[in-house]
Amino acid sequence: MAAPLLEIQGLKTFFFTRKGVVKAVDGVDLSLNEGETLGLVGESGCGKTVTALSIMRLISEPIGRITEGSINFEGKDLVAATESEMRKIRGNRISMIFQEPMTSLNPVLKVGDQISEAIQLHQDVSKKEAWDRSIEMLRLVGIPSPESRVNEYPHQMSGGMRQRVMIGMALSCHPKLMIADEPTTALDVTIQAQILDLINRLKERVGSAILLITHNLGVVAEVAQYVGVMYAGYIVEYADVITLFKEPRHPYTVGLFQSIPKKKGSAKRERLQAIPGLVPDLLELPKGCKFQDRCSRVFQRCREEAPLLLKLNGSHQVRCWLYE
Amino acid sequence: MNEEILIIQRLKKYYPIRRGFFAQEPVLVKAVDGVDLTIRRGETLGLVGESGCGKSTLGRLILRLEDPDEGTITFEGENILSFDDDQLRKFRRNIQIIFQDPYSSLNPRKKVDFIIGEPLAIHGLARGKELEERVVELMKVVGLRAEQRFLYPHQFSGGQRQRIGIARALALQPKLVIADEPVSSLDVSIQAQIVNLLLDLQSEFGLTYLFISHDLNLIEYVSDWVAVMYLGKTVEWANQEVIYDHPIHPYSEALFSAVPTTDPLTKRKRILLEGDVPSPINPPSGCRFHTRCPLRIDFCEKEEPLLNKRPNGSLVACHVR
After folding, report:
1. Sign of the C-alpha dihedral computed for residues B92, B94, B97 and B98 taken in this order
2. Is A145 in the B-facing interface, judged by CB distances under 8 Å?
3. Domain extents for chain A?
4. Percent of chain B surpassing pLDDT 90
5. B148: which residues sit within 8 A by CB, 6+ positions away?
6. Is B220 in the A-facing interface, judged by CB distances under 8 Å?
7. Cβ–Cβ contact B124 with A under 8 A
8. Which of A29, A138, B181, B222 is a Cys-bridge partner for A143, taking CB atoms 3.0 to 4.6 Å apart?
9. CB–CB of A272 and B221 under 8 A?
10. Does the beta-carbon distance from A190 to B188 stay under 8 Å?
11. pLDDT of amino acid A179
12. B16-61 per-position pLDDT tens digit
């Protein structure tokens, strides 16, 4: 079996603030093979985005720092890479698309210039070739009449169109890995459906692996093959998408599924099974399992010892003492 | 069947925007452009539609925070558009709103006891000791602790702030509560807590809800009736079970089919709409949906379809179906 494209081991990214050390990412392990799609789900503040920014080495130092762990990408440890090495990787081998396409595009440059810039930065092509490639990318992401839209500025486009431009730009150098951070959260449902359909089609065509970050389990079900569920800085459950949705094991994952309003069939207006309480303060994490205060199946060991990621069947892993 | 508490007919609200110095005619944004709705006492009407379709403007019109350009709003048999200031103040006790963003809808400089008690004070319903008791009681109802009343909003989490907003809305014992995206800024596990609270309060106090949301799973869960809006118009209005099983309007059909399923095995047959929602400044002629409709015929461009009753009881505005 070939080595995975991306392998993260024991990643810890901390922020050293005046109030104390915020353990935003506190021991993340992940691996992703070429061409696969991994969904990373969790609620706000669970460390999804910081994990992505760590891979891109975009954590703003000295406040934030990767304190431990390794990120192996194509056989190279990104944690140890120099800034100039990273510059060759970002946008080229690994690209990223963000939640808000308006703030991540430059408002004073034509979209064609922005895509060309990325292409020229990484590949030895003339300005004209880069421009033509930009038009091709816009066509690929389904923008109508790309020859004229390439001359437009971001504000002339709708949210869905801008997100298509972002995806086109991200794919312009044929990256091995594309990180999509909440790519459809700012969009309406019918536009979200268009973008998810586009991501699914491009996945087959371009062959990039995708790390999809989202809080929406529905989006994960549509796009991902594997899913990692994060809670308060680490992965609490990992499985292929069907196993995770059919047999969630971690009490947090189970709780997440139960909090989603169900389809009909069950008795009308059955109360939602909410997870009680709040996400713990990352400055004052409890000893032992981080989910203990909200867990319905907590027992003595959970309060004393931090659980390890335990292997169940196949690729299924869960960080919970119930399964030891 | 319960009596009708709120009836809205042909409601329109246009906002003028100036475009260019020499523009002769004012340019109008047609935010709400012909909405018909009825809400019955003790029931929940779910209002769905994409951003910019006029959902929130409609909520503001019902509260008379804005005055409509055309149409009527009847609440408990009275035309609220004819109310003078005095009547309006009394009327507003009956309808309260819960906003989407609990961060911007609470005054950051006021403590919670003031925020929740202010409506009671304004309407002269309680003061002093009695006011304090009412505030404590309201906080208990929404699941906050009495001693938390001396804290400021920033000392609460998002979900707790939304509880404060709910307590404030309930202070005047309203008959109708407009919930404008009440949980969309909250995390999934917290959303369920707030939704449960809203439903408990409904059965306890017999509240009527106008529930505005773009989350179609949530609307299915909370609503008795569902109205679908597109570019300022009601395009379909039906019983919740009927519309989720058999949406008739092609827009409703596409909208419901676009919801991501939480089951990776059942890939739903999805209807992908072409293009984006057109601008409400110059909405398409005839049926507004014709530019994106997979079923359009020539006639759709020419004549605007009106809501009419279908055999299954739904009201639908479509020429083709």
Report:
1. positive
2. no
3. 6-93+176-323, 104-174
4. 62
5. B112, B139, B156
6. yes
7. no
8. A138
9. yes
10. no
11. 95
12. 876 666 666 778 888 999 999 999 999 999 999 888 888 889 999 9
